Each structure stands twice: as C-alpha cells, then as structure tokens.
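Review session, final week

We close the course with one last complete record, chosen because it touches almost every idea we covered. It is Thioredoxin, mitochondrial, a protein from Apaloderma vittatum with 130 residues. Go through it on your own first, then we will talk.
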Amino acid sequence: SLAPRAPLAPYSRAFSTSTGCRSTFNVQDGSDFQDRVVNNPKPVVVDFHAQWCGPCKILGPRLEKMVAKQEGKVLMAKVDIDDHTDLAIEYEVSAVPTVLAMKNGDVVDKFVGIKDEDQLEAFLKKLIGA
C-alpha cells in the first residue's frame, strides 16, 4: 500500500511568494466560477492567464499585490485558459493576459496586456467605486 500523502493544493501558485492572500483564488471549474465569481456579492477581478505566457507571470503577482491592498473590498479569480477553455470562449478572451472586472455577475470593465501598478490601482478603484 502507498503511504498517505498530504493533499496538494491544485495548481498551487509556484510563482507567487505572497502569503495570506485569501482575496485570490484559482477557479477550479465552471460551477466554481459561477459560485465564486458570478454570484459573488463583492466585485471580482478575473485574471485569464496561461502557464506559457510571459506577460502573465509579470501581471499576475502585480495584480495580486494590488488586490491584497484593497483589504477584501475586491477579490481576484485566476483562470488558466488551457484548463478552462470554455470560460475563455464564453468571455471572449482572445489574448492573455486578459483581466475582467465583474460586479453582480456582469463584466463592467476589462483590459488586455500588462499594466503598471498605478493603472491597476485606478482599474480597481473604479471597480470598487472608490
């Protein structure tokens, strides 16, 4: 028999060093997306990314840091387009990184590509209504 192993978190963020980042989560499947993004009372930033995407590796941690600074006023969902092609198609993601701002299940804003911290902060403040 195999020795019991500690369960591994699916798709653990190998490239992120931030700790205690509960405002960020990886989307597991369509119903998870529905529950935690579409039906969420809080605004959610959705980061459509891919493992092979260089700019995504820069934007992801930068966006996570900016979301964490909002102290729970906004959440961040990470969607790997290779794992969730259906969601990428549904939300018309044609390039990565694509970031959607969602409020009450509706896409209220979006951008494609890398943004600097000032631009990300403005994007988040607009979403939160700050």
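Two points worth writing down before the exam:
Residues 24-128 form a domain with the Glutaredoxin fold (CATH 3.40.30.10).
DSSP finds four helices and five strands in the chain.
Good luck, everyone.
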